[in-house]
Amino acid sequence: MKKNVLIIGAGGVAQVVAHKCAQNNDVLGDLHIASRTKSKCDAIIESVHEKKALKQPGVFEAHALDALDIEATKALIEKTGVQIVINVGTAFLNMSVLRACMDTGVAYIDTAIHEEPGKICETPPWYANYEWKHADECKEKGITAILGAGFDPGVVNAYARLAKDEYLDKVTEIDIVDINAGSHGKYFATNFDPEINFREFTGVVYSWQKGQWQTNQMFEIGKEYDLPVVGKRKAYLCGHDEVHSLAKNMEGADVRFWMGFGDHYINVFTVLKNIGLLSEKPVKTAEGLEVVPLKVVKACLPDPASLAPNYEGKTCIGDFVKGIKDGKEHEVFIYNVADHKEAYEEVGSQGISYTAGVPAVAAAMMVANGEWDVKQMANVEELPPKPFLETLGRIGLSTWIRENGQERALFA
Amino acid sequence: MKKNVLIIGAGGVAQVVAHKCAQNNDVLGDLHIASRTKSKCDAIIESVHEKKALKQPGVFEAHALDALDIEATKALIEKTGVQIVINVGTAFLNMSVLRACMDTGVAYIDTAIHEEPGKICETPPWYANYEWKHADECKEKGITAILGAGFDPGVVNAYARLAKDEYLDKVTEIDIVDINAGSHGKYFATNFDPEINFREFTGVVYSWQKGQWQTNQMFEIGKEYDLPVVGKRKAYLCGHDEVHSLAKNMEGADVRFWMGFGDHYINVFTVLKNIGLLSEKPVKTAEGLEVVPLKVVKACLPDPASLAPNYEGKTCIGDFVKGIKDGKEHEVFIYNVADHKEAYEEVGSQGISYTAGVPAVAAAMMVANGEWDVKQMANVEELPPKPFLETLGRIGLSTWIRENGQERALFA
């Protein structure tokens, strides 16, 4: 059954979600997009029409919305008659938008964990700090709420589940590796909201090892990976949303997240952080103006969406999953390779936005067709991975595996 | 005759000026200090009393003043009955304070060229853009206004004049070199107001060569100098106030200014500049707040005054002056070496503030004793250098010369 969709947000990921929803509006139904700045939504819809992305004639409307305003969000959900909300606005909105969905009885999908503006890299358990507190209410009311349905978290959770279901008898280690081997040609830019990007890396690094949280400093532990297509790349241990949910849902396995960084990124990050410019806490200028340094850094940096036209190169994101198979140690690497230029040509966004946005639409399609309409809150690894990865393969993100030194496509 | 002094400003340089005025209140008279934040003035006066710096019993009062408010400044000058104003507030105040002095008939001394908040590294002629426009009025009214009476500009101007008067028949090249070989132990800090510090280096670099302005980029032209005490140090061609006045007052000579920078400073500066964080032009945050990035960087960096307690090492600032003597090429290096720790022990400030503040007090003493009370506007190189350098030698900054490979004290 077709389900109408409301997209919240109007950044690079929302652009991808809008295009992919349009391309699949035979499965989804009427489309709506809302953000604080309506003109951004208008521009996205215009680009959808320019690319003739709507698979069949259909509604696609823009709305102005402050999604922190729960009542306004509920009113928009009711006015538009949507059954699914895809929240790809800033991570500060999650709790408000989820509340609005629970109150109106519609499905909720997001791509990143909730954050409070004043708190950076909170102490785990992250999902349990916010989202999971509403799990019981979702179950009672029969609300489908799919958490972290981007690429990482999201697809990488499905990869872990797939490895457990199909390739290993027992999982002992999950190492998620996220490498962007692309180049945007700017002096410095982040690939998604700088505020969220930097906040990920300014606090303590948490990983789940030997049944407990281990803490490290950012850039303390680095490792060179040799990956398909992108080759040898240095990645660093970071905290990340999915480390928490996988630690719980893949009991007995160590869970680590590794992000690739070049020396230039690390240098810029280190300078900004050490000076205090990545702080979420307000400082007062000599003139008495209170201002959050991180928000000023964000205002100075290129809009991630603006990087797309000149972005070149590829991303490789996947899971090294290690464990026991037929009594012997075994490891698989399940991954995707995406291309910045191809993403831009298809939907007008760069590859990082593409890999984050397409899975949210696949999840919406799974909710619409019932396969993931589970009437409760779920992280992606709790849901059947194969139909999701099959859908992703069809709509733009193929899944590959490297096993016993051989690489082959699983869902393409 | 004793003359009462009003110090404007309450930063690191003002701290030095306050202590040195106190130490010489037999030549100067009643002392007053004013800034926007009166508590900073109170703290400075407290430190003066702690060090028992007043040479003889005398007045030292604190006042709250927005020195951009000309009428308020005039009222304070009249109420306190001062005859000399030492302006060591931000360089944005010069024109307002000078106006107040001209209207009330008192002497004016500053240590840096006027700046307008919205304009960075204006096109030369710098002094002619602002200060020198008031030269005729000063002359008519008999106002003594001594411009740039810090170390550089200031003492280095006197060094150039001394070289011309005493060591060369004709001056062909003046290379002012400013090396801070000290260490404050912080990740990053500027030695004086970060806003003024960075503004010096974000624009085009101007030097005076072959009778015209030459333009370069910052850090484009570097040179290793081998200097007394501090040894081999890399310095870079920069624009600086005194290049302009010396170009005019030392006709026929090339004038260049070289500032020492370590690789770490250059890296931090480059990152901040390339990202746009050193811009004086407001940006708008996603929340709609208009803010000048440079002012936020300033708010994040350590207060220069706070560096003093742990500052170690020495500065070396001087002039390489080249020309013709008895028909042959000849060069002298006239310089001072200052020590951060000694400065802190004496006046509670680091060496950079010390070298900037002591000369302004020497200038005030010269105005008080009549030797520099010239009843007109003047840059330091237009005034007799020897009594000024003698005074400086007595009150804390000795002058040395390296000539024919030998170093010796001139005024110590």
TrEMBL record, chains A, B:
Signal peptide: none annotated. Pfam families: Sacchrp_dh_C, Sacchrp_dh_NADP. Coiled coil: none annotated. It comes from the Bacteria. Residues 5-146 form the Saccharopine dehydrogenase NADP binding domain. Residues 150-396 form the Saccharopine dehydrogenase-like C-terminal domain. This is Carboxynorspermidine dehydrogenase. It comes from Mycoplana dimorpha.
